Every structure is written in structure tokens, then in C-alpha cells.
Amino acid sequence: MNVYQSFAEVVNKYKGRPAVIYLGEVLNYGDLFAAVECFSTGLKSLGIKERERIILYIPNTPQWVISWLSIQKIGAVAVPIAPIYTSRDLRYISEDSGTRTVICADTNFGYAKELKEEGVLDNIIVTRMGDLLPRYKKLIGKAFDRIPEGKIEKGKGIVGFTELMKKRTPMEGFPVNEHEPLEILYTGGTTKNPKGVPINHALFLESVRAQMEESYPIVPPPENITLQGGPLFHILGQVFGLGPLCVTGDCVVVMPKVNIDAFLYFVKNYRIKTFFGVPALYRMILEHDRVDYYDLSSLVYCFSGGDVLPQEITRRWKEKFAREIFEGYGATETCGGITMSPVVGERPPGTIGKVIYTKKVRILDEFTEEEVPEGEAGELIVSSEHMVDAYWNKEEETKESYIEKDGLRWYKTGDIVKRDSNGFYFFVDRTADTIKHKGYRVSSSEIEAALQDHPAVFAACAIGVPDEKVGERIKAFVVLKQDVKGVTGYNLIHWCRDHLASYKVPHYIEFRDMLPKSKVGKLLRRELRQEERKRFEEYE
């Protein structure tokens, strides 16, 4: 079945149960289904057809969930992106994916309007963060400046989210084949621009179900309540935030942005059982000066993904809350989890878990592409029945990242891992030129391209440097053009803020006379990473 059919089955079973909680307001499954019925009819009234792409450019809100499910009902394809993306990012993804419609927030409406005036977009559907809240909460939020607001202009092709919700005539869902894409997720990598990963219905349902089943021994559905600890445009956030709605019938507490007091309050108030997030979020909670004011005893399943989990955080979390953090490892290209830590039995320290049953993996020598012996490190490759087998409109990048071996299609993760005799996997290193900052995959090439667009820059190299709080911070090494004077690191960082999303902006700039290169002229980022790691270790 497709995703919408799976969601409809869940609704039939759990119609009166809470589905989404947002800022104290509860949408049960019946309410959510009715909202999807209305909004999907509204989308069709705009002339949107099956298989058209629609960009989701809004924060975590019920509107995000309703939009995504409505897109599935009409047989279109969602293109979720970060709400902090600039007009440059929006333009690239719109043109690359062939998208002419965007659902945006009032706070980033200006970027969407700019592209519409340029003819890149046809339709803008705009929503405010408090659109689905009661009137008194909107007034309180406005009075205390708690709900950010942006300026919205009316015009042809611009319509409000709540206006489309008034289209109440029910319609039949489009019978999408399970092998067709339901969404395209854009991920950073070794290239200048993000790559589109088309995820089909079968892969999404198979992967979400397999990953959620890992926690069933300690949090069986449908009694689970999950606190959304990651963005819905990210595959980790989708597994735990959309998975319950489409598979298990559990309840999800949605938060529009990271606020530690709000996180802790929701755990206490709603008796949250499942919590997930990147390692940096766990560290922020541990170091929060009011954490002891909250009762977190309801937590049963704490999951970490998106980056390597430091053992120091695992130890401190267990000492403070008497709870384990279960780690997993995955990628956008594999629709999330490849390995996950089992919740029952012993597991060695530092493991990223065992391979989940829907995936096949091998560990290959980085140079010979032959399998390495047990216990030795090599590059992880992954295959599955319904796998993504190519990037969207990216033939060269597809050739670099996918291989045929023994009659199967395999995705090359670019990550070095090893396996012990009991089937537990351990992350060792990253070969791909990506930086893991706060769980995001940031392309080194994209940062370098932005810097090299500056008229004073001759060459640039971006790497990740170790940081306990956020995994890696971004450092750029820059060579200026001959005879250039007066350009500072501050100038270049300010330049990057105008050309990159905020989480991609370098934290440090170091000027050099030259950058290390191979004999054939290839930039040797690994040498610079090794330099920085050595400095970090000496400092420690």
C-alpha cells in the first residue's frame, strides 16, 4: 500500500486517540484526517496534479503534518526543506526538482515571493505558526511576542493555508503505486549543491516500520507518546514524527523550534515515553541549569542519531536519569536506519548497533572494493529491496555513490565502520567530504564555492573540526588573491551569511598562503582534518 492508505488504516483503528499535540492543543486522529481531507481538496482546487512536486518550507507545526499527508492523498510529491533556507537554496531546489508550488511560513514568505516574481514559482501557500491555534492563544502569543510574524502580501497565485482548509468537498485519493516517490529529500554531500533523494512509498513504510519495531519490547504501540526532537524535513525526524501517524497510531508532540525548558516541560506534562535527537541536544539537556526542576521519569526509550554519540554523554545521561541512550546509524539515501542498538540484552560501549532486518550491508576495502575480514575497518555499503538507486537528475553523482556488486545495487555511504564477532557495528571515520554539524550533513564543496565567489578569494577549503557540543564546527582555510589587503575573517563570514543557510556558515576562518593538494591537483582535506584533530587532542 501507499503512505496515505497506511495512514487511513491507522485512522480507522484509532480515530478518537490523540495524534498530534502542538502548544497544548490536541488533534486526535479523526481531527487530523478531517484536516487532511479539507487541505487536499484545497490543493486540487489550485490545479495541482498527480506527481507534481510541492516544496514544504515551514517549521514543525500541525500545518507541516497536514500538508505532507495531503500531498500523499492527491498523489503528488513532497519536497521538504529547512525553513531557514535562503532564496538561493529555495531557487536551486525549486529548479532542480521542477517544483512550481511552495507551502511557506510567513517568516520566509519574502524569499518565496522573490522567486514568484522571477517566474520560478507559480503558487505560494502561506501559513502563520499560530494558524491552527485558538484565538485566545494567538492573542497571548502576539501580546508577549512569542509567535514570530512575517509580512504577507496578497496577489495572484498567493493563498493562505486556512483559506484552502475551507475547501470541504471530499475527494478520492489518487491510487499511487508503492514504487513511486512520495517525497524528495535534499541532502548535503561532496558536491557543491544538495542532491535530491527520491524516496518511494514502499521504502518509507518498510524502513519506518523496521526502525520503530526496535523499540517495541520496551514501548509497545499504540500507548507510546513521542516528543519530536528533530526537524520534519530530516529523515530522522520523519521516522519518529511521521512514523507513528502512518504505522502505529501513537501520539506525537510537535515543537516548532528547540527550547530546552519547553522540551523538559513537555516530557513532564505529557509523560513522554520516547525521545529522540542528535547528540548535541542530549548535551544541551544535561548542561541546562534548570534540568533538575523537571520530572523525566516517564522516559523509556531515548534514541540518538544524526551523528556519532560521545560515550561521555551516554555515561552522564545514565548516571543522571538512570536511562540508556540507544544509538543508531543511517543516511537519507537509505531512508534512515541501517543499524540500531537493540533495547534488550548487553551491547558493547560505542556501538552503533546491529543491522536492521530490511537492510543488507557489506564492509569493503576503500581501495580494492573487496570485503574486509571481521574486525577490520572499511567502507560500508548498503542494499535493500525497495532502495533509492539514483539521485534526482544527478547522473554523475549517482555513478560516484552507487555500484553493482553480485547482482545487487549498493549505496556507498562514504563512512568507515567495523564489525565485531557478535554482529555489532562501530563507526570509525568519514571518507566523504561532509561535515556533521548539529546532525546536519553540510557539503564542504558548497561552503568552498560560496567563499570562492567572493572577489578577494583565490582558493578555499572547508572541513569539520571536533567539538563536544555540536559534533563538528565548520572551519574554512582561505587563500586570498595576490595583492588583496584589508579582507578579514569577519568579512568572509558575513559574506557567507548572505549566501548560505545559517547552519552552513563557517565558525572559523584561517588564512594561508597555499592549500595542500595531491600530485594531480586534488584538494587534500584529509590532511587538514588530521592537523585539526591533532590540535584538538593536544588541547585536551
Protein described:
The chain has 3 domains: 3-254, Rossmann fold (3-Layer(aba) Sandwich); 324-430, Luciferase, domain 3 (Roll), CATH 2.30.38; 438-539, GMP Synthetase, Chain A, domain 3 (2-Layer Sandwich). It contains 17 helices and 26 strands. It has a 9-stranded mixed β-sheet, sandwiched between helices. The chain has a 5-stranded parallel β-sheet with strand order 4-3-5-6-7, with helices on both faces. Strands 17, 18, 19, 20 and 21 form a 5-stranded antiparallel β-sheet that branches. Helix 13 (311-321) links the parallel strand 13 (301-304) and strand 14 (325-331). It starts with a helix and ends with a helix.
SSE inventory with pairings:
Elements: H1 3-14, E1 18-22, E2 25-28, H2 29-45, E3 53-57, H3 62-73, E4 77-80, H4 87-97, E5 101-105, H5 109-117, E6 123-127, H6 135-143, E7 158-160, H7 161-164, E8 181-187, E9 195-200, H8 201-213, E10 225-227, H9 235-241, H10 243-248, E11 251-254, H11 260-270, E12 274-277, H12 279-286, E13 301-304, H13 311-321, E14 325-331, E15 336-340, E16 354-355, E17 360-364, E18 378-383, H14 395-401, E19 402-405, E20 408-419, E21 425-430, E22 434-437, E23 440-443, H15 444-452, E24 457-467, E25 471-480, H16 489-499, E26 508-511, H17 525-539
Parallel strand pairs: 1-11, 3-4, 3-5, 5-6, 6-7, 10-11, 10-12, 12-13, 13-14, 25-26
Antiparallel strand pairs: 1-2, 8-9, 14-15, 15-16, 17-18, 18-20, 19-20, 20-21, 22-23, 24-25
Helix pairs in contact: 1-3, 2-3, 12-13
